[in-house]
Amino acid sequence: MNDSNSPTNPVNSTDYLSLQGLSKSYGKVLALSDFNLTVAQGEFISLLGPSGCGKTTTLQLLAGFIQPTAGDMLLNGQSITHLPPNARGLGIVFQSYALFPHMTVRENVSFGLEMRQIAMQERNERVKRILSLVQLDAYADRYPRDLSGGQRQRVALARAIVIEPPVLLLDEPLSNLDAKLREAMQFELRRIQRKLGTTTLMVTHDQAEALSISDRVVVMDSGRIQQIDAPHALYESSDSKFVSTFVGKTNFLAATVQAGALQLSSNVQVQTHAPMGLEGNKVTLSIRPEKLKFANTSDTPKLQVQIKERFFLGNLWLYRVDSELGELEVSCINDGTAPKHESSVEHLTWDDAHFKVMSAPEALK
Amino acid sequence: MIQHTRTPYLLSAPALGLFGLMVLFPFLLTLFLSFQRFDHQVGIVPGYTLDVYKHIVNDPFYWEVFGRTAWVSLTTTVLCVLIGAPEAYVLSRMRAPWRSFFLVVILSPLLISVVVRAFGWSLVLGPAGLLNSFLQGIGLERVRILYTPTAVVIALVHVMLPFMVIPVWTSLQKLDPQIENAALSLGATKFQVWRRVVLPQITPGLLSGALIVFALSASAFAIPGLVGGRRVKMVATLIYDEYLHELNWPLGAAIALILLVVNLLVMYVTQTLVEGRYARRMGS
From the list A89, A98, A116, which residue is nearest B179 (CB)? Predict the structure, then answer.
């Protein structure tokens, strides 16, 4: 049991952590409903969703701070559902960091090892090693109040990983940092996680964060899993309206299935994998803003649009355009050439394969 | 410019005036009084002397009264820590409607005159009081508690408890609610969480509560006077007797000043020894 806990041992690695039918309700309010997830050893999983979607509930259930109404949690084949939090041995990084303010950085990091009654010498060595991993060697004797937000965040991470937990839980670990630091810490977090090979679950509401550093992303809404996929697959092939809008931006278009093609309007149609047996039905199509292109002289123009507004995002231009299909968003790389003018008339082109049919056919408002 | 420099003085003038009139002036009067000569036949006579101080230091009776006051105050303080700290912790863990309800319950002793409360304890602890009726009812012997130091301690703890609960509760409010979960997740037992994480952080609150309780207990007058009676003499009741029964004002003044100095010393030493250490750790 102890051996298979260590990150280098690949025993039982595909269902290292398994959550089965996990549910939690508060009175009549269902915070989490039938949550099923299997995590392989060393995997980095993000739980992504808006606030109140049940992602934090899932983390607290795993940590043992709350008890599930139903379901089971297995770590390495052993049920941990009824273990108290201090017997689970999981590493947790809290959103507020929850550092011990009356202890130095060294004492904070050493606390978990002391609780495990690890001999002083080994304790000191491990603390030293972890502090150099998070690049805080020079701050070992400072108190948390003397550190910046990013440094506190790294102390919290060091304190959680020094105990070599089988699973690391991160509760919105970067949400209190400013944008620049957040991005740097994302990559830092991933680097450390890769190096240690610790199985990690991160809760976040920031889709960019989830996409950039996870192996798989679990998208949640109102207590239910909406989709579980690798970041790129999630972005490119999400088939629900919720996931398409929550992960990245998208344009929704109404279409009618006619003779195996999708008719967007009387003179615009898309040849794509039309759903079977829906002949004559209305469906919703989705296309990402960056998949729409302004037609060059060599392209076949497919739709005439008029530019309404444009926004400069540094690396991108975002255009809001009017067309016979309604308002659309188009984004183009800023390649250094002059942008399109507002209120000018342009033509759009696209690759039909980039249109996705949403799974709920009636749902277009 | 001139106006700018005057404004702070003008603004603080009423407070300073009040302080001077109500605290500083009587204090100086007491100080002078304690050095004046006293004759039992005539009263205060002209001239200054250290006689009363010599008298106090050489008479074991005064040592006994000061000693009793010290241990009654200390016992009260320790009991207030032992009862007040867990009480504050439970209070901070309560949910919204109950928390404010029990806070009012804890503060309610402050809303009733100390004299009324002292008489209340006399009724409870007296020879025919609630306690003795209860003991008799279950077939035990009666106890004599009223007019003993025990009664004074019981009544003082009741009166002083809010002064312990409030500072501890305030420092508990500053605790990150996740911090106990963090310690638990690192493998600490509930006791270790309390001992290693919660207690060190509420120590400044405990300390200021303890100092307030000790100082107020050491100078308490109504409770020892009414619950302790004539036999359990404490410093404040002794001062009262010297002033109003013996009419020996210089002696009363000297005892009052010694009480003040001892109280200040206790506070200063505790502050520098304990709080200094925590101030460094916890920051200001």
Answer: A98
